[in-house]
């Protein structure tokens, strides 16, 4: 989603941009150095940020996962009058990043490395740079004095289904904190995003019946059955692509289906007993993911009688993996007005990737999405963000200070 340059005021960014001119450059390098892949703990990063914020007088709270290997951090810089609960602004970012396994990186992914006018490293786009720049501006926010509370929300396991933030939000609500709104720093090219698609994910498990490949009629080929299901999903994806139920405001204007992982079989000369695949739907508000899944379940059920005629123990089963509701903040709100001014943009956008925005928004914290970098660079080897994007984010924070600070 590369936004037109004319949509952003020219007075928000210095030119040319040099790394040494960026307030948040060293903070980005520090956060990227924590290898917070979703499967691993994020506690080292969380504790470092907690100590940093407490050094500026922040009140901090952690909410943990069940194993206490990961934590969310919610931190509040109080207003000058002592207010810690009402009318604050939340700066939100997730701490986890996707794996680098098997990707051909040219630099150390967990060392932010300057290559020309680009900063490379896992998470520089998705999405440690926004959080780092917000943290780097804390001394300025505190020096000027806050007219309203400023909150930082750092969550775990966003990349595997927005898991951690649900506990963070529940704790915030239970403590009676009522922010005026939340700015989520996912990569938008520093354009203002007010909607994203919903997402649902599932795993399908097919149990077949093993046999020698010379005797294939005596077996039930789990891989073949799984492929029939994957083909059916692909056909529905084409129907959605070519249908009339579209919203051109989105970067991908139709609901999409995707199969991203498949495993099965033992050897070429064995009819495979098991196969598994994982798939997703990223849906527009007018499309019902439950209706899609019901149709898939009915098709799967139609395949089972032929399978069980060979072996009654065969089956097709589905496991729901994650659910991320869609988000739409098309209405007016205080945080939307603030974000419009801070971004220097007079336009609004919608995106196809999921965020935590719907969860904040649904908990009476109106949300918007705006952060440096572009989603095209996320999850890739040599993930990068341009210095110009970081400078735009810093200009955003300077304008934010005019809204939240006394002086």
How far apart are the termini?
A: 36 Å
Overall 3D shape: elongated
Placed side by side, the strands forming the largest sheet appear as 1-2-6-3-7-17
- Mean pLDDT across residues: 93
What's the assembly state of these chains? single chain
> In percent, how helical is the residue content?
25-40%
Unreliable stretches = 1-11
Structural category is alpha+beta
Let me know the number of strands.
18
User: Over all CA atoms, what is the radius of gyration?
Assistant: 24 Å
Write up this protein.
This protein is an alpha+beta fold and 407 residues long. Helices cover 30% and strands 23% of the residues. It has helices spanning 25-32, 43-54, 128-136, 138-144, 164-174, 222-242, 289-310, 334-343, 357-361, 387-404, and strands spanning 59-64, 71-77, 89-94, 113-115, 118-120, 150-155, 181-184, 193-196, 198-207, 211-212, 256-264, 270-271, 274-283, 315-324, 327-328, 349-351, 367-369, 384-386. Helix 1 packs across helix 3 and helix 6 packs antiparallel against helix 7 (289-310). It is elongated and about 80 Å long. The relative contact order is 0.20.
In a nutshell, what does this entry contain?
The protein is α+β, with helices and mostly antiparallel strands.
